[in-house]
Amino acid sequence: MENRNLIFTILRGHEATQDRKSLEIYLLTLFSFLAIISLNVMLYPVIQWFALLLAIPSGILLCRFFVMEHDCGHMSFFTQKNHNKRAGLILGFFTMVPSRMWNHIHDLHHGIVGNLDQRKNNPELWTMTVDEFLNASPLKRFTYRIFRSVVMRLFITPLLWMIIPRIPVPSLGAKILASVLTHNVIYALIFYWIIVNGHFLGFTIIYLLPVYLFNVMASIMFYLQHQFETTSWENDENWDLYTASIHGSSYVKTGRFMGWLTGNVGCHHIHHLNTRIPSYELPIATEKVSPYIEVDVIYLKELFHHLNCVLWDEKAKKLISFSELKNRVN
């Protein structure tokens, strides 16, 4: 039995937000990104192919932007609430993910992760159980296969994530609606000026391509956070937040660069246990509690195996592939 009280006590000791460190990270990332974009704008008319190369570091820095936006949403990037809100607002403009909307759906996710009965309310990836899939109509099964395909996840989903945050959803509340509409108006004015002045192709390469690359990485990491073979899903009567956090959230081991790029999001089980731990403290906190927690470790090289784990088997308590289901039925 895991010593929950001890684990929580250790993790509380890592709620160590350092304003100076966070500000340095914020300003360095912001100015680096603006410098690359400015260089790209100047060189694009002369060396257009160079813009394609610079799309890679631009996309990497946008990943870092989203890491900071995520921490701001949890009030773990700065100690002051208003500083987190303002920083998140600016970062959300660049990532094209309005921070107010993101914070709302992400907080909802944290509260009901791994709950089978709350899947309609949990803005995660569509997940069906084996029985649900077998009893579904042919059209629904076909749609689900497309939705859970590797091509969909790696290439189409990143495009959708550039569009979905633009959609106003009144049911999310007036403040979120106003935030989304305000972002859309600003983007529309920018796009109008760009198109009218004949800069659309350059803008696509210099800015929209990096946003797409950032969303590709986000799509991969978001998937592995909860969609892995030995994850945990339970019905209401058996569900508890601790188990869902530890065993329904992944521990993805990455190298230092990937850890920096993704804000150590691979330590996702620890993040779900304590959201007030800033991203730069997660590896240390994970190391401290590792002796008291037994979890399966995932590696990025296993990505395609887990991408094929698409149906929740309630009897085996794991995600299985369509191939495994076919072998069982036959």
Q: Which structural class best describes the helix and strand composition?
A: mainly alpha
Helix content: 55-70%
Total count of helical runs of at least 4 residues: 16
N-end to C-end Cα span:
39 Å
Give unreliable regions as ranges.
Answer: none
* Element string (H = helix, E = strand): HHHHHEHHHHHHEHHHEHEEH
Overall pLDDT metric: 95
Radius of gyration, whole Å: 21 Å
The backbone outline, from C-alpha atoms, is: globular
* Number of E-type strands: 5
Report on this structure.
With 330 residues, this protein is mostly helical. The protein contains 16 helices and five strands. The protein has a three-stranded mixed sheet. It has a two-stranded parallel ribbon with strand order 2-3. The longest helix has 27 residues, at 200-226.
